[in-house]
Design goal:
It is a single chain. The chain is elongated. It is α/β, with parallel strands linked by helices and 434 residues long.
């Protein structure tokens, strides 16, 4: 155990003290924050250019409906010349809107022409204007007095509350959507961790094998201790990195949310009276979300997350270590990596589809299979599935993890000293039987 502890310390400090670790750990949360807030910032920047849209209305019914917006100015051509002729006369026009027939009889008799790609907001503005007019005309054709008022009064909005009974009989407002979001967050963390740091274990083993450092190390350390020290050490590196990422991302998202929230309020609600009028609605929404979050047992969710996290990492890291010990260069790793990548991707898809039916057969069986349970089970746990299912999944996961460590150690002790030969699957099976 003492030698294993030394290897764990060596693997941990060797990676944490690298400049690349520091840069990636610090810059990654900024990248995530940028992916969230840069599109918001860009979308808030308004285009100062006002594009002219020429309307060619051959029915004389629709041109007057269009009103200028911040980005588009609608101009009625007032003549019935061909589109090509008007295009030659008006070279500075951004787009031409041609309405060639009555839209009641021919809904496809409208088209936008431009030398550039038609913006989505222009298409939406034209569609919204015409649909609103046609709907109004359609309602008028029914000759029913006060039809608009009747339709408006007939609209009904229902907000269904979802209430969960606790074990003590206490009723708490909950949300299936929030449960799915919580599950997806934990699932993605496990998926990224297994893929990222499992590959790091494989690369570390390959690096030591290629540099022949391992020949010196195995003279004083058992191959099993060396393998476990590398797996645990890199796992601690990953945990350290994830904790720092969570803290920095939370801070950046909170600061960015406050900044953009204040900016939006300043831009859209400059009047203090309007601001005060909108505050109760925002406060009610915030309190509703906090109330629903309070219905989830986060202590239990995080505890199970840690257990599935450890079991899944040990299982996959062992397999990655076995691959790294059996090959000499990264090119040979593809044939061994492909089955594991398929398993991880399948587990992610199974977890995603399990959100709609967390008690269905796909979710149930994939949450018990050790290779998929760390990912799929984290989707189901926020929905409070029976404890016996979680217990069986954990027993199977850690039993398979111990078995994989045992099998991998047999492959590792032989493959770590093998050079210049690409082993076949049959030969690897022989190593296990030694």
């Amino acid at each position: 155990m003492k030698k294993t502890g030394i290897i764990i310390k060596r693997e941990y400090l060797r990676r944490v003290n690298k400049k690349s670790f520091f840069l990636i750990t610090i810059l990654t949360p900024f990248l995530f924050a940028a992916l969230v807030f840069v599109p918001l910032w860009l979308s808030s920047i308004k285009d100062d250019n006002v594009h002219e849209v020429m309307i060619i209305d051959r029915t004389d019914k629709y041109a007057s409906l269009f009103k200028d917006t911040d980005n588009f100015k609608f101009v009625n051509s007032g003549n019935k010349e061909s589109l090509e002729a008007q295009k030659d006369k008006r070279s500075g026009v951004f787009a031409f809107l041609e309405i060639s027939d009555d839209l009641f009889n021919n809904p496809r008799a409208v088209a936008l022409y431009s030398e550039k790609q038609i913006p989505q907001d222009l298409k939406q503005e034209v569609n919204r204007t015409l649909v609103r007019y046609l709907e109004d005309e359609k309602r008028k054709s029914f000759n029913i007095p006060n039809l608009d008022e009747i339709i408006e009064k007939s609209r009904v909005k229902i907000d269904i509350r979802t209430v969960k009974w606790g074990k003590d009989g206490e009723a708490k407002t909950t949300s299936a959507e929030l449960g799915g979001i919580i599950g997806v967050i934990f699932t993605l963390v496990i998926y990224m961790f297994l893929l990222m740091y499992g590959s790091m274990v494989m690369q570390g083993v390959m690096e030591e094998k290629t540099n022949r450092i391992v020949e010196v190390m195995v003279s004083s350390v058992r191959p099993f201790d060396l393998m476990m020290g590398k797996i645990v050490g890199i796992g601690l590196v990953g945990i350290t990195q994830v904790i720092i990422w969570c803290i920095l991302t939370t801070v950046l998202v909170s600061v960015g949310g406050i900044f953009f929230g204040l900016k939006t309020v300043t831009a859209t609600q400059p009047d203090m009276a309007v601001l005060q009028q909108g505050m109760p609605e925002v406060q009610n929404m915030t309190m509703d979300i906090l109330t629903k979050l309070g219905s989830f047992n986060f202590v239990e969710i995080i505890s199970y997350f840690i257990l599935f996290f450890i079991g899944g990492y040990i299982s996959y890291a062992s397999l990655f270590a076995a691959i790294g010990s059996a090959i000499d260069n990264p090119e040979d790793s593809q044939q061994f990596m492909t089955p594991m990548m398929i398993l991880l991707v399948f587990a992610l898809y199974a977890g995603t589809y399990s959100m709609n039916n967390p008690d269905g057969p796909l979710a149930f069986w994939c949450s018990l299979i050790p290779f998929t349970s760390p990912i799929v089970m984290m989707i189901r746990i926020p929905y409070e599935i029976p404890f016996w299912q979680i217990a069986i999944a954990l027993v199977l996961l850690f039993a398979s993890a111990v078995t994989l460590v045992w099998v991998t150690a047999k492959i590792y002790r032989v493959g770590i000293l093998m050079y210049g030969k690409k082993p076949s699957l049959k030969e690897i099976m022989k190593w296990i039987r030694y």
